């Protein structure tokens, strides 16, 4: 037969027989040369030959060689009327021609012709080619055409099938190109088509469309249910070609079930019953004896079953179905097939979150535990851990945590970290007896110390400090744990902290006398890393307070060169400070300074957030359940982990007077703890501030206080800011000029506060806190904008744009932005550095537009940036003669601006003074004859020159009025300064 | 401390596997196959670290030879050993290919036992090995023979056994050079060097001491300095500057260092006496003058002239010129007066073969190449260089054997009785001219 292309077969077998790669290459080169000479030759090639050579080229390409000719010949093949030739042509094109090849035009013309062809085979080929190329351009060109084929009455089944799949592909590449018209409603009716292939293709398409706008396709629910019913009830002989190893249309069933998961359970009861029947039938079929021993049979059957179960879980409405699904899954738990066990555990995890089936899941606890112990596959074990975590509640917590702990000893390293987190969370969440909790966590540290993250032990300490009843027990247990010859560093940390705080509670026992406690701790000192040593030093000084009798021992330790002259600054500083404290202070001072730590505010456990970071999907599902549960039973354990939704709470600073510094320092020792527990990572400035000895009083440094605390931490935090910002180097357009500010401006009242001060909170709502800190030097300034995410979920597509409402601002201000990343993680804080150069005087105020997506909803906030002309003003001093000389010089009408207005704030001379100084003017005394009047001068510095300004403010106490007069070189400036100052006083 | 040695065929099947140390397990065999031979991307590095184990490999035709070690060992040593091993195997059964290795696997295992002991390289001298590892059937050796072998292998002169006797004392010297060249289209030499080897085949009785003299500048000058009185007339500049050289282990290096004399007791049979490299004053045997003209996008004209540049009395052999053609060549017409030229599509080149070519000749080839319009215009032809192969009967570096004297005090034959043959062969290495 001529169609068999003998030459191609020979060539392929030649290649296969090649002994080496070099030989293969030679053969290919030879063939390529041959084809080139044929294509070049004067003799015209007939269709068969062209097809053969194009085929060979295709084969060579698929072997991994570059092909840079023959495209024209392939396109020529498209004109042929023979199916095989056309087919090869399309094949070559869909594999080899790149999107922007210039031959694409020709190809598109051919595609158009073929789509319009009366021969369904040709239409099919064209559709396949379009789908295979699937470029945006293709979508643009053909997306409007293809729906017509799909709903055309007389189109053949195969055409419909291909059209549906082709449209699906185009929809996936360019959803915006696919027009939604009246055809969409008709597409749904394809579900009723006679031909199963068409239905299968249509379901795939509908599912993709449904994802975009579910409301348009509501009708498909009942249709697919009836279709599903027909399949489920049919026997395997009915569907002939679409029966796969005795399972009727498994793929279609799975797709239909998946489609239904996009909608809530149907409201119409008949439909709902019908669906329930279907699901029941599927569940029934699962228990029937298998019709074949082949693995394909059971695979197909189980695929349908699992999809049905996930639909049941999705609907979460029919308790009987849920329970049945659960028992069915329970059977799979002991199945021989590893995959089945995995899937069963995974689905059960979801079932455990449903209130109806939670108890049913719990019945399988034992099986799951044995799976944990005996399962060979690590991924299955992982799932078992997930399931145990999901099924855990108050009743079985102790047992499950116990099992997990025993498993921890043998667990794979890959899942230990997660396992530790889970144990820690469960232990905390369901602890009714806190001694049990302490035991569990200490055990955890003992068994898998390396995997215990900081958060876990921070949390133990928090809980111990907050609950008086366990303190003595904790001290005792920790003491005993430390007696072990080798213990993990985390254990030493916990031990140091707890003994330092509560060592006195067990000092009565002769076995744990003060000096023994100290010796025990100090025995571990040399094995520990510097941070732990620093912590231990704090513990020692605390011990000095608790037990004056061992003071000398501790002084000796602090005095030793190893500490006092340690190369680590932190240790050195602590040692020297504690040493002088221990030496010089009286007991009273010690007692005040080294007072017991105050209880921590209740807040959400950061461990949970960490776990969620690791496995978002599962955790969210479980968390939702957790919240549901918490709403229902008014359990006394409101102090449980997920109790407080608002994580930001400022802790009042403790201690006072001379004690503040050390108290702060001790807190600073744990300031990592605190800032982390808050879930707000403040870029390391918090510990720096505390360690810098500035006396940051807050035991826990949170976003607010650190921004407001400019005086103390300005140096450290401002040095932290650029380094954080420099990470983001993505060049985005962040400065936009345009009159129309999108969205209304919010936070106007906060903005006014910024006229006279340089840092604070600019805006705050439930999701976002925007803080600002500015520095100005002469004509340039730097504004650091802090965005704090207050929610436990990340903000996606985060972007901020500076909007200049007045186009003249572009010449007046040079603004450069170091943009932030496009994501603000849960409870994270990011900062953005804006550098501003004042080119000339300006009057309008730049806007800051923040956009982000929070839980799927796009948000946009527009704020006024606190950037006003007085920020660039520097106060200047002068004597009265110069003042009056200037005053007179600048007394032309346009240079002068006078306003008389009602006082907006109480007329207190001192506050007014600070405000004026904050505004930028100097205050000159002995100039005005009336001492109650304020007089001053300032120079606005711009790149284009300095603008001197003078003012005089005359308060009238009786009328509660002010008269403000501003003289300035530039006409507008005096007016603007007047306006600004007016709002402040 | 080589831990193990594996030989694979091109499919990655293990042909030979010999493990010397316990720290190398069977899985190392698979690790190399999976990560190097079957790697998705071609692995070009000869040393690969896989799971804290180093794999050193060389590839000869389709055979992979791989040494494995867990230790931090000298990579140069390993490669030197691997190449030596290839050489040894080659001298035992000729070409190294899958079939030969399969046919000789018993022999190879025997060799591996001898070459390495607990992973440390031992004797790799072919001549010595051949005295006790033979391809003949197992013949039980008498006690004296075994002691003799032991004595020899562990003795001071491990490479030569005592009591060799020949009726005719004969020796052959081959100076084999390969000439490497890269030349610009204008005829400017961009880089050129000669790497040469002196191969010796000796059939001498007893334990003869040989002295070898060459025209190396250093050696000649030091000699002249030694007897400066007689050197008055000899100011011929017939010496060359050797960049570096290395000798067979039989050469007494101490004597070379102090007296610049090459003195040695040769192994019996064939061996490589020395190896050298030279970059200065190379007389290039051929010059290629290319002329490439692209006429439009579908045609190209190539004209190549080859000039031989040596004494007319000498005759070059196996001359072959390879002219690469563009990848979109669709047809070639070649015209040449001498030799045979053909377009070889499988190599994408025109191959011009000349059996014999005398000195001071100039032959020419011209070709017309038809090109197919490539769809992808971004790719331009890179014009790879024209390469050349040949064999000429002289040393391009000017290397000369001045003398080779044989002294055997115990047996009664003198230097004059030894029949000596000297031959010079100049071969092409990478001899390329850009066009």
From TrEMBL, chain A:
Entry superkingdom: Eukaryota
Ranges of biased composition (kind: Low complexity): 633-643
InterPro entries for the chain: Adaptor_Complx_Large_Subunit (IPR050840), AP2_complex_asu (IPR017104), ARM-like (IPR011989), ARM-type_fold (IPR016024), Clathrin/coatomer_adapt-like_N (IPR002553), Clathrin_a-adaptin_app_sub_C (IPR003164), Clathrin_a/b/g-adaptin_app_Ig (IPR008152), Clathrin_app_Ig-like_sf (IPR013041)
Gene Ontology molecular function: any one: clathrin adaptor activity
Keywords: Coated pit, Endocytosis, Membrane, Protein transport, Transport
GO biological process, one term: intracellular protein transport
Classification via SMART domains: Alpha_adaptinC2
Pfam families according to UniProt: Adaptin_N, Alpha_adaptin_C, Alpha_adaptinC2
Residues annotated as domain Clathrin adaptor alpha/beta/gamma-adaptin appendage Ig-like subdomain: 752-866
Protein name: Clathrin adaptor alpha/beta/gamma-adaptin appendage Ig-like subdomain domain-containing protein
Subcellular compartments: Membrane, Coated pit
Region Disordered: start-end pairs: 624-643
Membrane topology field: Peripheral membrane protein
Gene3D superfamilies: 2.60.40.1230, Leucine-rich Repeat Variant, TATA-Binding Protein
Binding positions (a 1,2-diacyl-sn-glycero-3-phospho-(1D-myo-inositol-3,4,5-trisphosphate)): 6-7, 38, 48, 52-56
GO terms under cellular component: AP-2 adaptor complex
UniProtKB/TrEMBL annotation, chain B:
Leader sequence segment: none
MHD domain segment(s): 168-434
Keyword set includes Ligase: no
Localization annotation: Cell membrane; Membrane, Coated pit
BP GO annotations: endocytosis; intracellular protein transport
GO CC terms in record: clathrin adaptor complex; clathrin-coated pit; plasma membrane
A Pfam entry, by short name: Adap_comp_sub
Topological type in the membrane: Peripheral membrane protein
Keyword entries, A-Z: Cell membrane, Coated pit, Endocytosis, Membrane, Protein transport, Transport
Cross-referenced PANTHER family: AP COMPLEX SUBUNIT MU
Protein's name in the database: MHD domain-containing protein
Organism expressing this protein natively: Macrostomum lignano
